[in-house]
Amino acid sequence: MKASKIITTASLGIACALVLTAAVTADELAPLKQLSPDGGSACFGRVYDADHLKAHPRQKVARIFFYYGPDPVSRPSEDPSDGLASAGYNGFMTTTVRGAREPEWVGGWCRASEEEGGAGKIRCGMECDRTMAELSLDAEGRLVVGGVARDIYLGGGSEDELGKAEYDRQALGADDDGFRLERKPAADCKAEFARIDPVDPALGDPLRVRLKPDQPFCYGRDYSVEHLASHPNQLTQTIRVFRSGAEVAAFAAKGKAASWPNGADLVVAVTTRQKATRSVQTYSCEGEADQWRCVATAPAGDGPSCDLSQKEIYLRRGANGTMMLANPKASLPFAPLCQADAATETKSDDRVFRLQAMPQAACAQ
User: Fold this and answer.
1) Spatial separation of the C-alpha atoms in residues 164 and 162, rounded to whole Å
2) Paired residues of 97 in beta bridges
3) CB-count exposure of residue 242 (10 Å: 0-12, 13-18, 19+)
4) Which helix (H) or strand (E) holds 43?
C-alpha cells in the first residue's frame, strides 16, 4: 500500500473499502479503554533482536508496531478529505520483514469482540470482511497481536495466483503471529509509520495546493528533433496541459471551491509527427490519493459512442516544480477518443510525460 506508485486504478480492495465506508464510521466505533484508558492515541511496538530472529527462522517480521488512533499514514494529498479517516479506520499495523528497507502497513476497524467468550478481546477488520488482527492484553500489559494472515498484504487467493514458491517469498512467515508488543509513546508509532513513504522535499506541495482553483495554469513540453529520433515510437511532438480563464470561470460557477480539485476541468492539447494541427480534449478531474484522475468529457450536445470513463489521464507532481502526466489507456487526443483505433493501448513512448511550467500564452488555443 505504497503511495509512491505513480498510477493506480481501483482495485478490489479499494472497491470493498468504498462499499464498507458507508457502513463503518468513526462515530460507530466505541472507545477501546483496554488500549487507551485516557481516550487518546495508543502505541505498541517491538523490534526483534538478532538472537530472537536466529532462534525463530520461520519469522520474517523484524519490526512491528500497532497504533490505535487517527490516521498516522497519510500526508496532505490531492483528495480534499482524509480518505482513511472517513472510512472509520482506528487501528493501523506496520511490519518490516528481515532485510527490507521500508515497512508495509494495513489499516482497519477495531472494536470489542462480540463473540461468546470474547471478553477483553478486540477484533480489527479490513476490507472485504478480512481480519487484520485479533488483539488482547496480557497480564503484563503487553499487546498480543494474533490472527495475522500470511497474505495480509497480498489479498485472498494470492497463493493460487502466485504459486507456492512466489507466495512463500512474498507472504509473511509461518511464525509471524502471536506478537507481544510493549506499550510505547505515540510518537514512536508516528515515526515508524513515517518510514513507509518518506517525504520528498523536491516534490513540494500537493497539486491541489500548488494549483489554485481561481487561477489558470499551463504546463507543457516541445520535444526536440534529437529526442524524437531517439524515441521512434513516440507520436507526441508537443503537449500542453492547462486551465484557461474559461475553465476557471466554469469551476467558479459551480460554487464548489471547498471541494477543489474535484470537478475541475483541464484541457490537453497535442500535436503529433503526422499532423501539425493541435488535437484538443477536455477532462474532468477528481483528487485520488496523491494524484488527479481526469476523465475525458464529451463536447456539449455530442453523445459519446464509447465509455469515456475509460478514457482517463493522471496528473502528479514531479520534482522541482514539474508536472507528471500519465496516459495509460490511449487517452491523449491523437484521434477522436471513441474512434476504433483509439481503443488500443497507447504506444509505450506516449504513456508518461514530464512537463514544465509555461507562460499562459503558450497554452492559448
Assistant:
1) 7
2) 61
3) buried
4) strand 42-47
Cell numbers for 81: 478529505
- Tell me if the bond preceding 261 is cis, omega within 30° of 0: yes
d(CA 120, CA 97): 29
Angle (CA) 72-167-176 rounded to 5° is: 55
Per-position pLDDT tens, the chain of length 365: 333 333 332 333 434 544 444 445 555 788 899 999 998 999 999 999 999 999 999 999 999 999 999 888 866 567 665 444 445 789 999 999 999 988 999 999 999 977 655 567 999 998 878 899 999 999 999 999 999 999 999 877 788 888 899 999 999 999 999 999 999 999 999 999 988 877 788 888 889 889 999 999 999 999 999 999 999 989 899 999 999 999 999 999 999 888 899 999 999 999 998 888 899 999 999 988 788 999 998 876 555 667 777 789 999 999 999 999 998 777 788 777 776 555 556 666 898 999 999 999 999 86
Tell me the three state secondary structure of residue 292. strand
DSSP letter at 257 equals G
Which three three-digit cell numbers place residue 111? 472494536
Grid cell listed for 351: 504513456
H-state helical runs in 178-334: 186-194, 207-210, 225-230, 245-254
Q: Which residues contact 260 (CB under 8 A, 6 or more apart)?
A: 80, 208, 213, 251
> What is the rounded distance in angstroms from the CA atom of residue 133 to the CA atom of residue 140?
20
Q: Which triple of cell numbers denotes residue 141?
A: 500489559
Residues listed for the chain: 365
Alpha-carbon distance values, 72 to 6, 76, 90, 165, 196 (Å): 21, 12, 10, 34, 11
- Rounded CA separation 294/286 (Å): 6
The set of residues, in sequence order, having a beta carbon less than 8 Å from that of 317 and lying 6+ positions away, is 203, 204, 205, 206, 207, 210, 323, 324
**Alpha-carbon torsion angle 84, 86, 90, 95, nearest 10:** -10
What global pTM score does this model have? Answer: 0.62
- Chain-centre distance for alpha carbon 270: 28
Q: Match 514458491 to its residue by C-alpha cell.
A: 165
